Input
Amino acid sequence: RDLVRTRVDKMKFNPRVSSSRRKNRKRHFAASSVLRRKIMSAPLSKDLRTKYNVRSMPIRKEDEVVVVRGHYKGQAAGKVIQVYRKKWVIHVDRIQREKANGATVPAGIHPSKVEIVKLKLDKDRKKILERKAQAKLKDKNKGKITESDVQAMDATS
Output
């Protein structure tokens, strides 16, 4: 009976979070603007990643980005001119498409398909970077036992 089983059952870590595809899609597309900001994050370039020790950030207007996937890939870095949360896209300076009537409109690009090369920093954003870097450092040492820990254990026993 167990040999016929094709699906591997995985344990859920949080019983209050659904694994249902239907429910997850509903929550994603019905997300509030606050949640969309977080979902619409973009990875940082290698230079920024090493500088701030952070992998990705929610995108914002006036960040400089490079498109790394899709039709507009490989063009020069451009500034984000609009973050269109309702449509899940960003509009980048100089990346436009032509409509059937000849008018040009900004092309919508999903934030996961771009890489941030220059951040628009203000005090709140600096705080976010510091907090994310601290969390990453804390997780890096999680579960590691140092010599001082071993000596402390020997001293207590």
